[in-house]
Design brief:
single chain; alpha/beta; Spore Coat Polysaccharide Biosynthesis Protein SpsA, Chain A; 10 helices; 19% strand; globular
Length: 298
């Protein structure tokens, strides 16, 4: 049987971890391990995780200081040994057949670097609210760089991951988008139109509520990095105009953020970097940004 590694990056989600671990105990597929990396939580996460480590399938590592989600997932990946790997949010869980279905899918699609699924949107108590279908099918020969919406449960082959430069420890958010784009460059993508993942509505979730804005910025960085990697390759890539627009919107968001924080040095840096990126599509948004800035400054 293929060993399935579930990797988890945790920060202050201790109260949700029992749901995650119990969902693994309930799996119809038994050959799994879970690697949980605690990113220097200040809640009772460590105590809760340690209560499960007598089970040799549960591996626990702890960062001595908070390094961010990218570094935590990298630590988890580096300490996993499974042939197939799945990313699981510390506040989320899996349906009972998730691992079994994914293992069969990876066996069916040997050239697939990554396979994803639909998911259930749940309330804070993990009660299912509805099926959440946020995946948009890619067009023929189209890659994720043009349509960066992906489903959960995100799983990938170790052999494919080894062809990338892996999880970026500098990414605090949108770690999934960064690794998805990298995996997209080394294999095919497949999708299971069945909900295998329980996505919890969580006020402090890394990509939810106000954290969503921060995640969107890191997602833009992931896309910009992917564009650079794909130059000179046959892989589908953004046009020069598309990447300039992406860069513009990144710097626009950054100078708005700097202005709200009264960090005028960063504000000036990002404001100036917008100038060479202005075109017909970004001219009006730029004028709007100037008006917004003036209203805040005077």
């Amino acid at each position: 049987m293929i060993l399935f590694s579930v990797i988890v990056a945790n920060f202050n989600n201790g109260k949700f971890l029992p749901d995650l671990i119990n969902s693994l105990y309930q799996q119809t597929y038994s050959n799994w391990e879970v690697i949980i990396v605690d990113d220097c939580s200040t809640d009772d996460s460590v105590k809760i995780i340690q209560s499960y480590v007598e089970d040799e399938r549960i591996k626990f590592y702890r960062h001595e200081r908070n390094l961010g989600a990218g570094a935590a997932f990298k630590t988890a990946m580096d300490n996993s040994v499974g042939k197939v790997i799945g990313m699981l949010g510390a506040d989320d869980a899996l349906t009972k057949q998730a691992l079994e279905i994914m293992v069969k899918a990876h066996e069916k699609y040997p050239d697939a670097s990554m396979i994803n699924s639909d998911c259930f949107w749940c309330d804070e108590n993990l009660n299912i609210l509805h099926k959440f279908e946020h995946y948009k099918p890619l067009q023929p020969n189209q890659s994720l760089i043009r349509n960066l919406t992906i489903g959960s449960f995100a799983t990938f082959k170790r052999s494919a991951y080894s062809k990338t430069n892996g999880f970026d420890p500098d990414f605090k958010r949108a770690v999934d988008h960064d690794i998805y784009l990298k995996l997209d460059e080394v294999g095919t993508l497949e999708y299971i139109h069945e909900p295998l993942y329980l996505y919890r509505k969580n006020a402090i979730g890394i990509s939810q509520n106000e954290n969503g804005v921060k995640a969107a910025q890191f997602s833009k960085i992931a896309k910009i990095n992917a564009y650079k990697r794909r130059i000179g390759t046959k892989k589908d890539n953004l046009t020069k105009r598309e990447i300039r627009n992406t860069q513009f919107h990144y710097h626009q968001m950054e100078f708005h953020k700097a202005l709200s924080e009264k960090n005028f040095k960063d504000y000036a840096i990002h404001f100036i970097r917008c100038f060479p990126l202005i075109n017909r599509q970004t001219f009006k948004p730029f004028l709007g940004s100037i008006k917004f800035s003036l209203s805040k400054l005077f």
